[in-house]
Amino acid sequence: MKIAIMGAGLSGLACALTLEKYGYQADIFERRAMVGDRFVIAEAMFSMFHTPYDDAVKYLSETYDIHLKPTSNLQKVFIYSKNETSFIDGHLGFTNMRGKHSEAYEKQLAAQLKGKIRFNENVSYEDISKEYTHVVMATGDALDTEKFQPYDVAFKASFKGAVIEGEFNQTEAHTFFNYDFAPKGMAYLLPHSDKKASLVLVYPQYPENELLDKEQLWEKCFEECCVKLDQDFKIIHDYSIKDYRIGKTEFPRIGNTFFVGNCWGAITPVFGFGQFESMLTGIYAAQDIAGVGNYEKLVGPLSQSYHDSLSLRRTMEKLDNKKLDLITKSINNKVVESLITTNKINLFKIISRIIHPFSRHA
Known about the structure:
Elements: E1 3-6, H1 10-21, E2 26-29, E3 41-46, H2 56-64, E4 72-81, E5 85-98, H3 105-111, E6 117-118, H4 125-131, E7 134-137, H5 142-146, E8 151-165, E9 172-177, E10 186-191, E11 196-204, H6 207-210, H7 214-228, E12 234-249, E13 253-254, E14 257-259, H8 275-289, H9 295-298, H10 300-316, H11 321-330, H12 334-341, H13 347-355
Parallel strand pairs: 1-2, 1-7, 2-6, 4-9, 7-14
Antiparallel strand pairs: 3-5, 4-5, 8-11, 8-12, 9-10, 10-11, 13-14
């Protein structure tokens, strides 16, 4: 058995690490010059989206022997709508770094590998499939999946982000739901340290949004962030992404080709996070290759979670700023807050099943 992994992101590296634990060595092909070779950004793994796992870092460590060191734990998340502010607190998850940062999760995973990664290898699937018995598609690009099978695109997203300088509490995150500058989307601020943070604006590229000026939306978002946090932030550097596909593949596996991470559809549509899900798909693919699991069955719950998340997003898209204000205000209720933060029930799953009882396509 000869295994190739195309891509050295979270899912590809998690797959390679798991294969090594079962005694298999995979050849990893990465088109970039290094692991995490892109802009620096902070991301988060929120426990409320991973029920029944209240601690994703602990779960990966104890269950799969994959060890991650987050940047910080999250104790409070502020929610801002146009006219209301609320927050939830508790053990809410973790923040971590991605990209070129020295402590990025990709670099942490790569450091645990025994094997080597082949960098600057822009190989084609056609060439790889001739030499290898098993291929894991982990490039992070839905366009690579679309060459082989249907990939249901829920929407294409537009991102505008920046690393900003100011005064931050590393245990606090800030989220903004204001359709004046984030039409049917959101913005969020996640600290890197007590002096730097990532501010990201993301919204779907629906036809009505395509006519909007992205830079003007960003300026409103940045100004709102300064006002809400009562600081004069300084932009260190920024970036912009367009046409980022959020969706899911139809088949997790075709023959001996496995689709993992974003090539499978690990990003949750409602808020756009998916690190934990990406790593799980890589782990599950490795277990199937090693003969200790069935990939299609293992990703079944993740697939249902994707559809639940999409149902929530479709509902949120029907709201306006007044309704977002009502939801934000309701979170100040202790009962609502406890329902969101408890790991005994998955409130988001319950709501989505009420909205849409059956699995759905994008």
